[in-house]
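Async update (no meeting this week)

Hi team, since we skipped the sync, here's where things stand on the single-chain job. The sequence we agreed to prioritize is pasted below, unchanged from the tracker. I ran it this morning and attached the output directly underneath so nobody has to dig for it. Comments welcome in thread, and please keep replies under the output.
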Amino acid sequence: MRDVLIAVVVDFILGDPVGFPHPVRLFGKLISFEEKLVRQMARNNHELKALGMGIVIVNILVAFLFPFSILTLLHRYGLIYHIVNVYLMYSTIAARCLRDEAYKIHKAFSKGIEEARYRLSFIVGRDTKNLNEKDIFRATIETVAENTSDGIIAPLLFAMLFGAPLAFVYKMVNTMDSMLGYLNDKYKYIGFFPAKTDDVFNFIPARLTGLLMNLSSFIRFKGVNGFKVMFRDRKNHKSPNCAYPEGAVAGLLGIQLGGDNYYFGEIMKKPRIGDPLRQLDAQDIKRTVEIMFRTELLMLFAYIIIEVIK
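Output:
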């Protein structure tokens, strides 16, 4: 329990410093290399799809064996083991980084919409060059909401239940999905299995995140509406999971999310999530970040209670 809690504190203090060693960057480089390799190997789309499954299998093994081997070797060394264990778990959590990136977008509007579009491009896969102010608000809120599950609750859940090796596996799966799991012509074959694997791994964390969001912010925001929208609009997304945290945020804040976006120049039509009880504004970015931290704190509180009872 102690190592998980320290990892959360380290993330809150350090975030993701530029130039600091981070395993997820290595994951990204590995996936990029694998994509180039399998595209050269595949003779048709069926082979490309099968090789995409191979990427998933290889990377899950790599992500598990890397921290498992290190921690096994260091287990007898007490303090060193715990320092490494904390670092490994810290590297899978992204609360501080997510907050910083969202606040950069919020602040960028003071320099003009072009700067806000530029800042947004660092954290979303959609095309940003033609987005208006409201679209940028919406994209930022959706990203913070979705990544409250992907970047905080999910890795914490796997770390709490199975330790750093499974948290690493989750982070690898999520990184594969973010790089390969698109539905456009370029990625629909190579990214089929990475996307499906991510759906499986996020099934419980996404629903848990939505629940924690609503419980932690029930009094602060529109708690009843948060639950209503989350359950009503839970299928209004291409992903079977993302609408849970996005729906919770939309309901809590009384705003509408979702809608069409462009990815790599191609339009992707999406249904709406939530009701436009009021117009989006810049403060909704900060309100969503607040919901994110409330959700993380409630998760930690529940974990401590369970561990104490055990």
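Quick observations from my side:
The chain has one domain: 2-309.
The mean pLDDT is 93.
Reply here if anything looks off.
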